[in-house]
Structures are given as structure tokens and as C-alpha cells.
Amino acid sequence: MDELVKVQNLTKIFKSGLVGGYFTTAVDDVSFDIHRSEIISLVGESGSGKTTVGRLILRLLKLSTGKIIYEGVDISTLKGRKLRDYYKYVQGVFQDPFASFNPIFKVDRVFDLLFDSYLKDKTDKKHELIVESLEKVGLNSLDILGKYPHQMSGGQLQRILIARTLLLDTKLLIADELISMLDASTRVDVLNLLGDLRDKEKMSVLFITHDLSLGYYISDTTMIMYRGNIVEFGKTKLVFDNPLHPYTRMLLSAVPEIGRKWKKSELEMKRGEIPAGGCPYFDRCPLAMDVCRKKPNLKELEKDHKVACYAAEVMTGDSIQIGKGHNN
Ligand SMILES: Nc1ncnc2c1ncn2[C@@H]1O[C@H](COP(=O)(O)OP(=O)(O)OP(=O)(O)O)[C@@H](O)[C@H]1O
Ligand SMILES: [Mg+2]
Predict the structure, then answer these.
(1) Closest ligand to Cα 56
(2) Most buried in the list 27, 192, 195, 273, measured by CB within 10 Å?
(3) Which among 182, 209, 241 is the end of a domain?
């Protein structure tokens, strides 16, 4: 697998309020690669910075520092035609599909806009191409075209938006809480569709979710985000079979199972303040040590499995060397 997107030391600081406002570091020095034909899930609790990462890659937000490199090109400087071309290859589909459609227009309009702006040269084959892309996402054009958004289900609208990306030859789909609003059976269909897009269309997907089990089901690679930081990153099987960060373990212990009484994790304890420049999980971590007052970097503790945690280093037999030997 080769790299499609390289995210390097990405930071986003939001300033809120006018005079004497306050700052929120939503994304804090995050680095990762997205490979071709890879589904990579970005998992974390509410407010951890997942959507901000997705919106930065989609250029819907301006980054504070760092770089996003798509196919070797820094996208922060793209303008005009080059930026328009970027949106051919990188597309976002979000939680609420109804928000992406104008209720007063038929759903066909999302295709019309596409052909008016990006696919002018293919107008003669417009209908045929639309039908084909709808078929690829499991929709019959006769059920879809000519209808209004309110006549469609959430799952159908999500699929129409995905069909749109197929017409554009999208290489990366940013799917932000894509299936949160769908019922269980439609969820599985849409998840399987993402798998098909990866396997047949060679599309990559950044699958943003707060639901660890969805990430497990769908992704090749899993990133765990906490307070703007990637705290664990690796092949999905490794992260789930051998979770190394205490936060990942807490998340796993909180996944509800049928037949098991659901209680708040014993691992989740409040401890007080996070020291300035310290580990972002310091105040909740049952394993916090003095050394954690300095933030750990991501370190590869087994092949294809990186963790930012000194305690995990001790557990896996790696010595603690603050500021030395830690790589991103
Ligand atoms: N436009 C904004 N202005 C100020 N702060 C913002 C803005 N957007 C996000 N934030 C803050 O940045 C942090 C990360 O938000 P983000 O939406 O990326 O989280 P998330 O992980 O997607 O959460 P959720 O699971 O609830 O969608 C939060 O503290 C949020 O309040
Ligand atoms: Mg979000």
C-alpha cells in the first residue's frame, strides 16, 4: 500500500469570543498517513477532535500549523482550479444526509450540479452514468430519480451521496459519523458498501466514529484520538487484540455487550489536573506516573502498532527515555 495523504504535525487552535477570548486546541500535533485502498477509522469520544481532522483535510477549516500532503502536494496552498480538482478526489459525507440536500429540489439536483461543474464533457452520457453509479451503491434509479429528499430514507440519501463520489472518481472519502442516524440493518449495508468501494474502486476511507465496534468491523487501521491527540494507532486487529493505551482499554471495556450488566468502567477515574505539557490522559489514568508529566510521543511498541504511553512502554518491556527514541 502506498500513501495517498500524509498528515504531518497537524494542529488546529480555535479562538472563541472577541476581546480576551479563549483558545481551544482541537487537534494537537497529529501525524498519520492514509494509504490507497485503506479504510482507516478515527475513534474517540465527543470533543476529541475527530471532525476537526476531517474538516481540515477537506479544507473546510484553515489549519493552524502542520501540513496535509495529498499525492505529494501541500493542499493548504491550493487555489482556484487546483482546489476544485482536489474536491474531485477528496469528498466528505456527513452524519445527517438530509442536511446535504435542498428540500425544495429533487434529489437529481446533486447530480445536475456535478455535471454542470465537473463533468461537462460527459453530459451526453449523463443519465447512463448516474444509473450506473446508483447501481454500484445498490440503488435502482427508478426508485430514486425524480423524487424529493423527504421521500427518501436516510440510508438511501447516504447512498446517493456516495454514488456522487463514484462519478467523480473520488480517491478519499471522509465519512464523518456516516451511519449514526441509520437503523441497524441499513448500517450493515452501508458499512459493507464502504468495504466494496475499497476493494473494487480502490477508494480510501477516513471513517470517523465514536463507536469502537464499528471501527473494528470496517477498518484496516485504527487511530484512537483523545483530547486532540492520537494516543494509539495501528492495524485494527493489533489495536483490538492487544490494546496498549489505558484509554483504549477503557473504551473497549465500555462497549456494551448483550447479557452483561453495563457499568461505568473501573478504569475511568478522575485524578485532578493535567500538568501543563503532560500526557492528555493524566487526570483519568490509573497508571499515571511522574514521568507522564511530560507528554509521551507515539512510539512503535510492536510492528504496525504505535502508542503514546510510558506505562505501555514499561508493560511491553521498552525502557522509558523521555524525549529520546520516540518517533511519530
Ligand atoms: N468552530 C469552532 N469554534 C470553536 N471551537 C470549536 C469549533 N469546532 C470545534 N471546536 C472545539 O474543538 C474540539 C473538537 O471538536 P470536534 O467537533 O472536532 O470533536 P469530535 O471529536 O468530532 O466530537 P463529536 O464526537 O461530538 O462529533 C471541541 O472542544 C470543540 O468544542
Ligand atoms: Mg464530530
Answers:
(1) 1
(2) 27
(3) 241
**Residues within a 6 A CB radius of ligand 1:** 14, 16, 24, 26, 44, 46-52, 210
Same-domain check for residues 184 and 312: no
222 and 302, same domain (yes or no): no
Do 175 and 207 reside in the same domain of the chain? Answer: yes
Are residue 87 and residue 24 in the same domain, yes or no? yes
Whole-model pTM?
0.90
Tens digit of each residue's pLDDT (9 = 90 or more) over 117-167: 889 899 999 999 999 999 988 899 999 999 999 999 888 898 899 899 889
pLDDT tens for each residue of 3-17:
999 999 999 999 887
**More confident position, 268 or 61:** 61
Question: How many other C-beta atoms lie within 10 A of the C-beta of residue 246?
Answer: 23
Q: In whole angstroms, what is the distance from residue 162 CA to residue 153 CA?
A: 14
Structural domain span for residue 89: 3-241
Contact partners, residue 15, CB within 8 Å, separation at least 6:
21, 22, 23
CB hemisphere CA count around 155 (13 angstroms): 15
Same domain for 296 and 185, yes or no, is no
- Percentage above 70 pLDDT, the chain: 90
